[in-house]
Amino acid sequence: MISEAETPDPPAEPAPATAGGAAAAAGPVRLWGGRFESGPAEALARLSVSVQFDWRLARYDLLASAAHARVLHKAQLLADAELARLLAALDDLGRACQAGTFRPSAQDEDVHTALERGLLERVGQLGGKLRAGRSRNDQIATDLRLYLRDHVRMIMARLTELELALIGQAELHRDTPVPGMTHLQHAQPVLLAHQLLAHVHAFARDASRMRDWDARAAVSPLGSGALAGSSLPLDPDAVAAELGFARAADNSMDAVSDRDFAAEFCFVAALLGVHLSRLGEEVALWASHEFGWIEIDDAYATGSSIMPQKKNPDVAELARGKAGRLIGNVTGLLATLKGLPLSYNRDLQEDKEPVFDAVDTLLTVLPAMAGLIGTLRFHTERLKATAAAGHALATDLAELLVRRGTAFREAHEVVGHLVIWCQVHDCELADVSDEDLEKVSPLLTPDVRDVLTVPGAIAARASRGGTAPARVAEQLTRLRADVQDQAAWAAS
Ligand code: ARG
After folding, report:
1. Same domain for 444 and 370?
2. Residues 45, 155: one domain?
3. How many angstroms separate the alpha carbon of residue 265 from the centre of ligand 1?
4. Rounded to 10 degrees, what is the CA torsion of 185, 406, 432, 426?
């Protein structure tokens, strides 16, 4: 799809709009001045203006305008020469937007107004012909879809880089055991690779949600007009195809009014944000003195203005914190959409800022997290030394007794007693002498110690989805292929 740099931002503060009818190139351009005697009140203009945020849709609006010009020509509503002049002017305007030499003025209500002004400046009254058969209602819905389909691919590309960073660390740590946790308590040893890949599986589902989303979003609203379609012989499917959509919308009222595609995108972004926050939380924990699992690279850590010794995991914390605004974006947009009657209502102008914020947030967080993860150094010796701490091999012992015919209920009891013994005597399960084992239970023969090794416990968990090295190697192969596929899609 389209992928150039964004058009530059317009001035943040619009100046008051001046009164006056729709002018051509001189004075403010308004798209709806005909039946009004006075101009807009300053308070209305300030409330109504959206160009300070919708200007980033300019490139997409221009693309849609060129496609629309071609169908008007096909419908014999534009002569050959008129089409050529309009296309050249749109092209020129696009270049001027890109270069920053054409910018929205303080009087432009929205991106459509600004671009119509730019067109009128270039081709005079001919520019007005492009308005036939379309409305800002179908235009804005189309622009936002185009923008999002493009940016979902950019997000996907950044997401694959984070997944590759996790996969790279997993490959380095195919043999490194860590204390696997539940309730943030040592539970059973697992491979560090297994834990890292758990995050990749979550991100891969986010990637898959983006592709599902894209298939539903690939419907063009252009041709719907204000709400009812057009009496002109347009060709919405041709426009749709030219803009990379799979087809045109089947219902014009639905097409101009629903923003489910925007809300669904915000949900996918929020869930990705939640997944990023879980990874961020883990990194912050791992970096603590209490865990001591990792060293964060200096390039991805921050210091303290007062405590010279500090090295803080701010990237991880910001990734955790940004989930809040991503969740806010989806809930805020859903609240805007709730209860809106058909078809277009101006409330819908509120759809853009949450969407843009979600895009900007992800495009900022993902590269930082990829860099943070890719440059982590794990303290493998400490991880090995603590992988079985907290009697984390107790389950292995109980399962051995089960393989020898003891009911699990009894095995659980026996090993529980042994754990208490160890706590009282301040030792590990494997350190208990033959006589003491026998004292705790006759089931605990000296050879039970054979299962009390970390590599043995890990290798034994070879069921599908388990942490055994063979199962982890399979995951690595599958996830690498998935990520490659995602990267190819992102480039499409
Ligand atoms: N700025 C508007 C929006 O974002 C564009 C559509 C305006 N349509 C209208 N009939 N006022 O939704």
Report:
1. no
2. no
3. 20
4. 30
Within this chain, do residues 101 and 151 fall inside the same structural domain, yes or no? no
**Number of the ligand 1 atom closest to the C-alpha atom of 348:** 12
Q: Is residue 427 part of a domain?
A: yes
Ligand 1 binding pocket includes 314 (Cβ within 6 Å): no
CB-CB neighbours of 404 under 10 Å: 11
Model confidence over 146-175: pLDDT tens digits? Answer: 999 999 999 999 999 999 999 999 999 999
pLDDT-based confidence at 13, cuts 50/70/90? very low
Q: Which residues have a catalytic role annotated?
A: 183, 304
What distance in Å separates the CA atoms of residue 54 and residue 109, rounded to the nearest whole number? 10
Cβ atoms of 330 and 362 within 8 Å: the answer is no
* CATH code, domain carrying 239: 1.20.200.10
| Surface-to-core class of residue 269, CB atoms within 10 Å of its CB (0-12 exposed, 13-18 middle, 19+ buried) | buried
Range of the domain at 51: 22-29+38-132
Residue 27's pLDDT is what? Answer: 64
Asked if residue 349 has its Cβ within 6 Å of ligand 1, the reply is yes
Q: Do 207 and 61 have their domain in common?
A: no
pTM above 0.85, yes or no: yes
Residue 163 neighbours by CB distance under 10 Å: 27
Predicted confidence (pLDDT) per residue in 399-445, tens digit: 999 999 999 999 999 999 999 999 999 999 989 999 999 999 999 99
Torsion of CA 322, 328, 333, 338, to 10 degrees: 160
- Total tally of structural domains belonging to the chain: 3
